[in-house]
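Input record, target 12 of the design panel.
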């Protein structure tokens, strides 16, 4: 019995590399870091958009740039939703899927709102903004839980 337990322990140590990082967890960590870096980059690009010329052509260029950034954001959230979470974090996969769905809905709404000449629609903007906020809230909650922190109902970290 002791011999079987010893063999099991040795096998486990060999398979896990005696303290080396688990390749699945390492890959996941790299994917999460890349996602977060890319989101920060896109967010920065969105915040830099302006109509510097003040004319209609400048407004159209700014709108086009915004829609391109939002499209990139949607793509990144889709990748996030498709990430394979390590087994100990499987419970977070549904929330990641929801984040992807909310961002897709937000971007689709922004596209329909800004992609037409029907004029500005406050209700559509509120709907898009709410979906956008819901997507980010889920990301904040997931990242907090992955770091072992406790988020509050707004997805912010409780100190």
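The sequence produced for target 12 reads:
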């Amino acid at each position: 019995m002791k011999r079987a337990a010893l063999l099991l322990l040795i096998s486990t140590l060999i398979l896990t590399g005696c303290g080396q990082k688990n390749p699945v967890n390492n890959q996941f960590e790299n994917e999460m870091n890349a996602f977060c870096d890319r989101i920060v980059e896109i967010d920065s690009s969105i915040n830099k958009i302006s109509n510097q010329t003040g004319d209609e052509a400048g407004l159209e260029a700014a709108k086009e740039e915004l829609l391109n950034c939002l499209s990139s954001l949607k793509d990144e959230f889709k990748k996030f939703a498709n990430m394979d979470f390590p087994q100990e974090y499987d419970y977070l996969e549904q929330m990641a899927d929801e984040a992807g769905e909310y961002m897709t809905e937000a971007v689709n709404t922004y596209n329909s709102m800004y992609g037409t000449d029907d004029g500005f629609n406050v209700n559509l903007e509120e709907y898009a903004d709410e979906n956008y906020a819901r997507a980010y809230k889920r990301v904040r909650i997931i990242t907090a839980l992955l770091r072992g922190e406790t988020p509050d109902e707004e997805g912010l970290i409780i100190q």
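The chain has five helices and no strands.
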